[in-house]
Design a protein that fits this description.
Layout lengths: L20 H18 L3 H11 L11 H7 L9 H18 L4 H14 L3 H11 L9 H15 L15 H17 L4 H14 L11
Length: 214
């Protein structure tokens, strides 16, 4: 079969037709990887990825999202804490080693930190990068920063109309600033608009967004 007759399920790893048997096998293995991920066959997906990542033709760093997805998938429920920590550690390493993808990796890192309950660390990461370009013009990062800041501004106990004073108003103002920045960069951002209106209501004495975090 000539190289022009090869067909593959997924288009990636370059759009050119493979010109030797090794490259054909790599493309076939990539198809297997993607199919296994779709079917949530994590054991076979991890095995296929372990082989692909060792191939010189595959830039595994550029496919960091695949590594994050497979890292810990299929693990036991009682291993979730360790799985989240492993993913955070991997993404932190990728932030340093793959600067061209740092903006996208930062978004994933923040989400993983939030998922792991490490909200303050997530905010620290955002505070580190948001003042500089290109992060300062990323509306998604500003929305994340606004949401995390708003979460941290909550009182530790359940709030009622008598306990609104226990909210950290400095953090509420910081959250408002992030939502406003997101709206400036992306006027169609409905998430920023929705939370911004709630934050403004809070400053006017309304209930402090308790509904958003229950």
């Amino acid at each position: 079969m000539s190289s022009s007759e090869y067909s593959f399920i997924f288009s990636s790893l370059g759009s050119k037709q493979p010109n030797n048997t090794r490259k054909v096998h790599i493309r076939r293995l990539y198809d297997i990887l993607k199919l296994c991920i779709q079917r949530q066959d994590w054991a076979r997906a991890k095995h296929a990825w372990a082989i692909l990542a060792r191939c010189r033709e595959v830039d595994w760093k550029a496919m960091w999202s695949t590594s994050v997805l497979l890292l810990g998938e299929g693990g036991a429920q009682d291993e979730l804490t360790q799985i989240n920590e492993d993913r955070v550690r991997f993404l932190s390493i990728m932030m340093r080693q793959h600067p061209d993808e740092r903006e996208s990796i930062l978004k994933e890192l923040v989400l993983r930190l939030i998922h792991a309950g490490m909200h303050r660390r997530a905010l620290e990461q955002l505070d580190l990068y948001l003042p500089s370009y290109p992060y300062q013009d990323n509306p998604v990062l500003h929305v994340y920063a606004g949401l995390v800041t708003l979460y941290l501004a909550q009182p530790e106990n359940d709030v009622s109309s008598e306990t609104n004073y226990s909210w950290d108003l400095n953090l509420v103002r910081d959250a408002q600033a992030h939502f406003e920045r997101a709206r400036i960069v992306d006027p169609s951002n409905v998430v920023a608009e929705a939370f911004l209106s709630q934050v403004k209501s809070a400053h006017e004495g309304a209930h402090m967004l308790t509904w958003a975090f229950r």
